[in-house]
């Protein structure tokens, strides 16, 4: 196949279009400048100019979260590239398909400490699925095709493509490869029939089974197949922080979110189960608490696309490697065939226990004592008024947990957050990316006053590019989750957690004035009776971003809570209060 003569930079733009990219979030600089010139003439690519490279990475992540497509970000060498590292690590931890493209100094300058040189390939090797250094213009089409394939197949992840300046400037003959040559990369294993049969046998023998559904259900677009399996099995399920919305919260078998701030019913179900069926979850520490006391009586079925995750933290009795959808479909078919022969299941006692826990220990909150609004109420009303078709994007901390707890999620890809890395500053740029990917959806950034100050410069990007997100700043004038830990574990010594953003006479900064300075609409809500009207007012404004400063109590804490490093059996429903396990179960 004979191609057209062009520069490597032109080939890079052409390759992105061939790979199916629609949007690129980026910021130009010297080493990537050759690519920005032909990017100006691109017909199929929209470029969104961000105000900080970290914002570009998080925006690409939010875009990928919301759409299921590969997110793309672009930066220059040196500090431009290093500013992307947090976003790259964040995407990799949460299995988000991301391709980050960086410019690099000329190949003859590599290793000389040239101006704005940084070994971004070496720096990102631990936090990417794969990365490339391209020094030959002719390699660009092949590498871009490989990068998109690697990022989006198997367990999705982040791929870095570092392109030297001379590779962008040199002439080459553009040929888009028809095939992929990646020896040893076999990302789509099929589930083994023997393991499927053994898993179903355990499911039929169990008296107290429970599903643990993780983010892999969403990353693998397997929600329909998994729901069919849950319905066929009549087994209760939990959805991890990364799986919220994978199946509807209203499903009668849903117990809630497990883990450090999970529901009593979900945490208890995992602890007292005799069988855990894990589909696409990592058994990370925020779910398990102390590993040696997690689900002590349970056999483990662990299904995951990534064999490295299986038996990494907990040894699986039945490991199943494959796509979540294929595994769920195979399990459903085998289960139905076995049930047609004989159905000996008896979950009545198990469901009786779980229903009692759901009834006795529902999520809720108590009235604040300091006169300020309960943040849980604000977030609950945002979810109720905006509804389950909206997309909710959280930062990290208390507001993140409350958003996971008190917004009802009925649809996949409507809950976006930084789960594994826990990156403050994630919400605003990720919401921006989600809105670009799903422009017809209402997108709420639910952010803390601490997180918001890390990346709120991307409001300029939103205004200039007509990206009308809505931002709810849950303003407790402090670093809320850190303050909660100081309250519980450091004798209420609030060292360096007061932010002076909302309580008293000081508002530094004043978020309403800041919104106005950026060309957004700024609203403030300080009274419970104004919450609904303020949210509805924000909902009616769709021609520009809206920032709502909700002044809330700094004393509110996230409950339930399993303190770090202890058994999930030590879950607390309020400070000093635990469920009465022995009496109730």
Textual characterization of the structure:
By secondary structure, the protein is α/β, with parallel strands linked by helices. It has three domains: 4-174, Thiamin diphosphate (ThDP)-binding fold, Pyr/PP domains (Rossmann fold), CATH 3.40.50.970; 193-361, TPP-binding domain (Rossmann fold), CATH 3.40.50.1220; 375-551, Thiamin diphosphate (ThDP)-binding fold, Pyr/PP domains (Rossmann fold, 3-Layer(aba) Sandwich). The protein has 24 helices and 19 strands. It has a six-stranded parallel beta sheet, with helices on both faces. A six-stranded parallel beta sheet has the order 15-14-16-17-19-18, sandwiched between helices. Helix 13 links the parallel strand 11 and strand 12 (299-304). Helix 16 crosses helix 23. Pfam families: TPP_enzyme_C, TPP_enzyme_M, TPP_enzyme_N. Its EC number is 2.2.1.6.
Tally of strands: 19
Strand residue percentage = 15-25%
**Contiguous runs where pLDDT drops below 50 for at least 5 residues:** none
CATH superfamily of the largest domain: Thiamin diphosphate (ThDP)-binding fold, Pyr/PP domains
Give the overall average pLDDT.
Answer: 96
General shape: globular
What separation lies between the terminal Cα atoms? 70 Å
Domain module count: 3
The amount of helix comes to 25-40%
- By DSSP (H or I, 4+ residues per run), the number of helices equals 24
GO molecular function, one term: thiamine pyrophosphate binding
Catalytic activity: 2 pyruvate + H(+) = (2S)-2-acetolactate + CO2
Domain Thiamine pyrophosphate enzyme N-terminal TPP-binding: 6-122
Pathway: Amino-acid biosynthesis; L-isoleucine biosynthesis; L-isoleucine from 2-oxobutanoate: step 1/4; Amino-acid biosynthesis; L-valine biosynthesis; L-valine from pyruvate: step 1/4
